[in-house]
Amino acid sequence: MTARFAAVLGTPIAHSLSPVLHRTAYAELGLTGWSYRAIECDEAGLAGFLAGLDGDWAGLSLTMPLKRVALDLADSVSDLAAGVGGANTLVLSGGRVHADNTDVHGVVTALREAGLAEPKSVLVLGGGATAASVLAALAELGLPAVTLAVRDPGRADPTRRVGERFGLDVRVLRLEEALTTVLDGGLVVSTLPGRAADPHAEAIARTGAALFDVVYAPWPTALARAVERAGGTVTGGFGMLLHQAVRQIELMTGRRDVPVAALRAAGERELARRARNGG
């Protein structure tokens, strides 16, 4: 195949694991000449960046803060990305830009792999773009209702509406109030960035729920350790990252034989290397 370019955009972006995953796929699939890199880009710069791309570009992966602004810059938008209100993928073809969302697929597949796809109840921490994708994923898994825990319920309306758009009954609570909930047989999904959930680790562990924490590095988080000590099942964000990348690669390359095991191994090796080096 002819040389093609792809990249992950966002800010900050140097930490992204996406280049390792996509480059591994290209090597395994024999896509010689394909390249993938990380590029620092904020919301103000995305339109100009897109305007400067030529026909050799196959697609872009998007992280924060670009997922919402991307919808306004695309020529077409998938129903899923429109419903969620954010795109983490731009597919470039024939001079047109198509926006899509593979985060939902990543969440669904990660929860199924962890045996957490049928919880009795779900408490989602956070109300941003990732939380919106989580709500869509929970609806795809057949959950009828979810509780959304946020610091400021007044700012959670856009995310609540996403859940309702996908057929979920969404209850919004203040974070402190939600953490007194008992979730025996339930699931807590933390979409809080970095170490933002750490101060609440013991309170979350006391809910009795399993945990899906979207953070993948550094791992384990204080939250994950607390839930494990309490006897709860824990899964981190690497599975979500892996499977959303697999779907992205399929969309950008047109291949349906992406070697998931090879990508998983490459990603785990890189995370272990970073942990050894303190990064």
UniProtKB/TrEMBL annotation:
Superkingdom per UniProt: Bacteria
Top EC group: oxidoreductase
Record domain Shikimate dehydrogenase substrate binding N-terminal: where: 8-90
An individual GO BP term: chorismate biosynthetic process
Residues in SDH C-terminal domain copies: 237-266
UniProt EC number: 1.1.1.25
Sequence intervals crossing the membrane: none
Pathway involvement of the protein, from the record: Metabolic intermediate biosynthesis; chorismate biosynthesis; chorismate from D-erythrose 4-phosphate and phosphoenolpyruvate: step 4/7
GO molecular function ontology, one term from the record: NADP binding
Gene3D superfamilies: Leucine Dehydrogenase, chain A, domain 1, NAD(P)-binding Rossmann-like Domain
Keywords of the record: Amino-acid biosynthesis, Aromatic amino acid biosynthesis, Oxidoreductase
GO CC term, one of those recorded: cytosol
PANTHER family: BIFUNCTIONAL 3-DEHYDROQUINATE DEHYDRATASE_SHIKIMATE DEHYDROGENASE, CHLOROPLASTIC, SHIKIMATE DEHYDROGENASE
Name listed for the protein in its UniProt record: Shikimate dehydrogenase
